[in-house]
């Protein structure tokens, strides 16, 4: 219920993770259609870059305003920090405060005077400004680091490498907010170089009990995890896509013209295959390098046909093997009978 500086930076990290989720899934999804030359209906989705900018902008962001207050000479309090936010962020559509110059929230009794509210991607969160300045200013000062580095205990000395006189930095140590912002930036840079796989966990109830499904709680999680936008983009586009070569290799046994070997381009083979199977044209599209299938049921149909065809091929192989085995045995018996008969006629 009471959110302070700690929850603020945690929510900031969640916003950055949501932003990279949008960039690497929803945005990439639509860009792939453009690359492949696929016609489709563009889906508008909420990009939370505007919220991230509200927090991390180097000039007008909340973290920048907080650092500026911590470095400013004179009397600095949480109230002066809130006053600065009310001046700089008053017109931002995702920032709310009763003390701001914007009169939209002057009569909002749910918003105390010592708080500000941010409309995050997952919903609105109210933050108590009390303690923001002190917690952000919680620095490890140089003299303390140097004292710890002079300790005789090797572990303590290793924990404070910045206390080494040879590495003295005369700059003011970074604030807690700045350190966290730098860590998040490093994390985002690392994630963007990877090929991510997302596992979304849904909590069905707050009691940690079985057989209880709270609809409101689940719907709330689905909304702030971005699953609705993902489903909307997938439904408007194509649920499955695959390069022509592996697609032809997997399903070529379903068509007599492509089985067992197709002589020609892979795309032409896939076109012949889908035409032979009679799949409706609205269910798939041919991209520059991939086949796009709109509905999962079409893919399930292909898999069922392939499974049945594999069973038929297994039966055929078994039948041919049994025929060969029986014929080989018969020819051996026939050869033996001729030999026996010739010997019998010789002595008859």
From TrEMBL:
<dbReference type="GO" id="GO:0030048">
    <property type="term" value="P:actin filament-based movement"/>
</dbReference>
<dbReference type="GO" id="GO:0005886">
    <property type="term" value="C:plasma membrane"/>
</dbReference>
<dbReference type="GO" id="GO:0051015">
    <property type="term" value="F:actin filament binding"/>
</dbReference>
<dbReference type="GO" id="GO:0016459">
    <property type="term" value="C:myosin complex"/>
</dbReference>
<keyword id="KW-0067">ATP-binding</keyword>
<comment type="similarity">
    <text>Belongs to the TRAFAC class myosin-kinesin ATPase superfamily. Myosin family.</text>
</comment>
<keyword id="KW-0009">Actin-binding</keyword>
<feature type="domain" description="Myosin motor">
    <location>
        <begin position="1"/>
        <end position="307"/>
    </location>
</feature>
<dbReference type="GO" id="GO:0005903">
    <property type="term" value="C:brush border"/>
</dbReference>
<dbReference type="GO" id="GO:0005737">
    <property type="term" value="C:cytoplasm"/>
</dbReference>
<keyword id="KW-0518">Myosin</keyword>
<keyword id="KW-0505">Motor protein</keyword>
<keyword id="KW-0112">Calmodulin-binding</keyword>
<keyword id="KW-0677">Repeat</keyword>
<protein>
    <submittedName>
        <fullName>MYO1B protein</fullName>
    </submittedName>
</protein>
<dbReference type="GO" id="GO:0005516">
    <property type="term" value="F:calmodulin binding"/>
</dbReference>
<dbReference type="InterPro" id="IPR027417">
    <property type="entry name" value="P-loop_NTPase"/>
</dbReference>
<dbReference type="InterPro" id="IPR001609">
    <property type="entry name" value="Myosin_head_motor_dom-like"/>
</dbReference>
<dbReference type="GO" id="GO:0007015">
    <property type="term" value="P:actin filament organization"/>
</dbReference>
<dbReference type="GO" id="GO:0006897">
    <property type="term" value="P:endocytosis"/>
</dbReference>
<dbReference type="InterPro" id="IPR036961">
    <property type="entry name" value="Kinesin_motor_dom_sf"/>
</dbReference>
<dbReference type="Pfam" id="PF00063">
    <property type="entry name" value="Myosin_head"/>
</dbReference>
<dbReference type="GO" id="GO:0000146">
    <property type="term" value="F:microfilament motor activity"/>
</dbReference>
<dbReference type="GO" id="GO:0005902">
    <property type="term" value="C:microvillus"/>
</dbReference>
<feature type="region of interest" description="Actin-binding">
    <location>
        <begin position="184"/>
        <end position="206"/>
    </location>
</feature>
<keyword id="KW-0547">Nucleotide-binding</keyword>
<dbReference type="GO" id="GO:0005524">
    <property type="term" value="F:ATP binding"/>
</dbReference>
